[in-house]
UniProtKB/TrEMBL annotation:
Taxonomic lineage of the native organism: Bacteria, Bacillati, Bacillota, Bacilli, Bacillales
Protein name in UniProt: Amidase
Domain of life: Bacteria
Amidase domain ranges (all copies): 45-449
Gene Ontology molecular function terms on file: catalytic activity
Amino acid sequence: MNSKLLQKTAEGGITLTTMEMKQLLFKSIDEIGRLYREKEVSPVEVTKATLERLHELEPKLNAFVTVLEDQALAQAAEAEETFVKGDQTGSLYGIPVSLKDIFMTTGIRTSMGSRILKDYVPAEDAFVYKALKEAGAVIIGKNNMLEFAYGSIHPDYGQCNNPWNVNRTAGGSSTGSGASVAAGIGFASIGTDTGGSIRVPASFCGIVGMKPTYDTVSRQGLFPLSQSLDHVGPLTRTVRDNAIVLEQISSLSFDYDSLFSGNIQGIKVGVIRSLTESISNPEVYALTAAAIQKLKDLGAEVLEVDIPGIETIEQSALPIVLAEAAANHKEWYADRENDYASATYANLKEGYKVTAVSYVEALEVKKQFTEAVNQVLNQVDVLVCPTMPYPATEQDPSFENGNIDVSQRTIPFNYTGHPALSVSSGNTPSENLPAGLQIIGRYHDEKTVYRTADAFQRATGGYKLPPL
């Protein structure tokens, strides 16, 4: 592709400096697409820069299990030819992205972050992998993750670190997805979320993570944790980018001009009182309060709401997660104990203790709680609360022995299946670590969630680059 950048280089002009190339990697998907169409830069140049960034930061971040360098460069070259011809392309065409190493990829290792499947090469493609390829995205690699997405890192793979502070975790279970996007290694990643596994890394890394309405994105070719609570969704740096990706991997479509106008005048925002007032970290509490005030300043009508039982509902969800996960691991549970991370195996062991009665009772509570959330959403357009009660911790919080307080504010909406998004509410003054604001919507109303989150993100200065 005879991009203007390459043309200047050939004429002896000045090429992009390292700083300029880094700035390019943090542009939005729309901006990169416009540069492609105007031949200011080529997909090959952007992909090479992305891979250079990856190699610069690995293994410091430890965000990737598999890097698909040759495949990515071939996909980028194909995209370059398309732009040279001037053919019409979609919004993800030639855009470097990654995906969590839990999605099946034909001929490419799919480890699930486990020793058990460390050499597993599937013979099928997951739906989202096919959708990304069909959209013309450049797939640069598969991201590190907590083992089987079940709350613990396997020591064979090691913790994925946070680009805001590499001595802190990126948050799980979509650890590498959150870290890579935040660090400018690709413009999006696809993760999974059973109890907060997209929204937790989004909160810890200061990016946008969307868990759409249950079954909005096909789970075909995803290794399941809990079929009743598993969701698939995108992690990006901006809200608009997130909608672009979700549109490509689902049947949803968005009117971008009206949706991202910055106008949320009159939108009714329900602040979940108990999940907000119970935040003990004063800096996260202050950021949340400031975020709520900003929504008011933007013209939203802010109300306080209560959802009975939401503070402890994760305990009702636990029998479902434990039992379904145990069933999904029956092939290995009896003979491969030493190959699991100890905390993962402990969770599986607890799953085999769940009785049929407890499981059925949990499903009944699920129906009742879902109705309670729906009733509140009949009175407001969206709900908000902090995504996490604290910024990134040094190590991934373990779910071992039922310790799932980390998901108190996220798993309720896996339980109900409502769309829920995390957007950065700002950084803590003391350690400059991101915190997240969670925005929850009615079923299949991702548009209002996106509209609210985008107006907030733009009003608070947009995505902020980490120091790494």
